[in-house]
Amino acid sequence: MRVLAITNMYPSAERPGWGSFVRSQVESLRNAGVDVDVLVIEGYRSKLEYLKAISRMRRMLRECRYDLIHAHYGLSGLVARFQFSIPIIVSFCGDDLYGHSDPKGRARLSSLPFAWIHRQLSRFVDASVVKSKAMNALLPRPNATVISNGVDMEMFRPLEKQACREELSLDPDRTYILFPYAPDRPRKNFSALKEAVDGLRAQSPERLIEILTIAGEPQHRIPLYMNAADVLVLPSFWEGSPNAVKEAMACNMKVVASDVGDVRERLDGVPGTAICGTDPTSIAAAISTALDDNRDGSRREAVAELDIGRVADQVIAVYSAVLRRARKDRGVLMIVENLPVPFDRRVWQEAKALTAAGWNVSVICPKRGKYTASRETIDGIDIYRHPLPEAQSAIGYPLEYGIAFFWQLFLATCIYMMRGYKVIHACNPPDLIFLVAAPFKLLGVKFIFDHHDLCPELAVSKFGPGRKHAVIQRALRILERATFRLADASIATNESYKSIAIRRGGMHPDRVHVVRSAPDLKLWRPMDPDPLLRTGAAHLVGYVGVMGPQEGLSNLLTSIEHIIHKLDRRDIRFILVGDGSELQALKSEARARRIDPWVEFTGRVSDQDLIRILSSCDVCVNPDLATPFNDLSSMNKIVEYMALGKPIVQVDLAEGRFTAGEAAIGAAPDDPVDFAEKIVALLADEGTIEKMALAARQRVADTLSWDRQVPHLLACYAQVASQENQTRRYTWNRRDRMSTKLSTTNALEDDHG
To answer: 427 near 335, Cβ under 8 Å?
Structure first.
């Protein structure tokens, strides 16, 4: 591993102690086998040095192949960001996030803009390292790795006090208070310490107390001062993780410090230490407490975990994690527009499967519901979310799609520049994401189209027939075909969708991979029924899904009315789980039909509650309308019912019939009475229920579970990632024996059974 360290803090002949902790970390990394080159920016000479450093950095990158850049301090990170070829890690040090202090401990106004810029920089690098949890909380994306600066335990160790005093020509009888910095640094609050010591002298004139400061000393001489003095005092206004405190403890020295950075974590419960405020009275009291504390206890042991070798291992772990994520040849960018991730279960399952297979996955999706973080990492998957208004009418869709396109293109560009990726994986609806992928195709990025929904058929279901809507449908067909033509491969949720990709999209059959939406049987396990859900009823019938216009829920309420009032079956309760645009209207309709005492609308629930509810049902239902979209689509609810061993009554549609097999009974399309009678007949036949439940579990386990789909997903990626991408297109003609009419699963051989 070869690393370029960029820093504006590094020891030199002029400033031998400046940035010694950076040099110590560099040396420890070299000792651990990391090849580190250092680019030092002498920014104290002139701010122009930072501009010169950009040119020097780019020259070094041309001359040598580095795996990553590790920048120390925010300004160094800004220099590192002037390239996009290799990953960047920034270690923030304190002032770069807090700002520079004035003599009263307040941040100078002139430093605040840079502190803000440095905080925002954390959004645009591959990883951030901070010295304490308090620093992490300052970042807009507080997921930095907290690594305190290490301590060279060989250099900083207990020495004989009198020998050290003799070498430094110090009085053997005086009490020395060590202030390990030059007195002219406002943030360190030397003036308050001086006033506190004056107060101690006034209280005890017989006690000879002197402040010992350090300025311009090389690091190897610092242990002499620490072992010669009686107590180290650091009353700073703020710090990240003060090295002097840890180094003094490694020398087994008594320590007084203000409650900044990780000081409390280091000193809590350690004998001979005290935490003070930043005022002279508090500092004086803490010094007296520490000097009078003669309890046994090794302060050195308290910082043993910060041995510089151990800290180097933590830094290397960050390097390794960044390099794993930054491998461009294994990078995937998934884009989904209609649902947030991880709420979109299919997309989340795909992302986790790809991550487990060694791909580095990033996801772009909208902010919805409780998923409002702009960026977070879950299970090693980086999620980028953007604001997106939901269209409430046909007029609102162009606005929604325009905003989505802007954010998707912007975020895709940022991610590509930061870490790169080999594949863009677009999940419809809508069929517009190919516009985002198109410019990256010119850069060699592959494009996979994950065909979740039939947008032209979905438009018919939503808007109905008519000349105006026919124009919309034709436009959607054009966008659909353009998406397929740009795609290097497509993923279909069933064989009907595969047939459409081939015939309507012109995809070669070998380039279309069927990956069904399926439950993970490790998570979808039946639970013990909850009798409270029945509220005294003998039977419980369940539905889960979107509460939308094409789901046929009004027909379901008509069926329930027939069961309750026509068949006089008041021993059956219905529980409907889900949310959507029609939820309130459906509740009103249930009240109008006088069936609301037997119908419960739960709204959206967690997966755990959903499994509990469905496990308690005797029968589950799917009342979808008989539309072209529903006829050709595989519904998630069907396999979820089956995973829990539930018999199903559903409208007899082609893909639903194929998916459920013997686990479902088909009712006549758009016939609520037949649907109702099928439910009642099934509830009366326990033998059939048991037989269908067994068939449901068996079919999911053998064919429809998620672990059966993962190999097909990975086969698609293996094909796209290979260099042998010759046959991408396939055109059907009239002489083809297979019918060109859009058909259902059994039009093609189904490789899922």
So the answer is: yes
* Nearest partner of 144 among 92, 184, 180, judged by Cα: 92
| pTM: predicted TM-score of the whole model, two decimal places | 0.65
SS percent in the chain: helix, strand, coil, step 5: 45, 15, 35
**Which whole-number Å values give the CA distances from 738 to 498, 503, 668, in the listed order?**
14, 10, 29
Q: How many CA atoms lie within 13 A of 323 on its CB side?
A: 14
pLDDT (tens digit per residue) in 643-685: 999 999 999 999 889 999 999 999 999 999 999 999 999 999 9
| Under 8 Å between Cβ of 495 and 582 | no
DSSP for 408-471, written as a single string: HHHHHHHHHHHT--SEEEEE-SSTTTHHHHHHHHTTT-EEEEEE---HHHHHHHHH-SSHHHHH
Rg, the chain, Cα only: 34
Alpha-carbon distance of 499 to 295, in angstroms, equals 81
pLDDT tens-place string over residues 32-86: 999 999 999 998 889 899 999 999 999 999 999 999 999 999 999 999 999 888 8
Say which amino acid occupies 428: N
* Domains assigned to the chain: 2-146 (3.40.50.2000), 161-305 (3.40.50.2000), 327-514 (3.40.50.2000), 531-704 (3.40.50.2000)
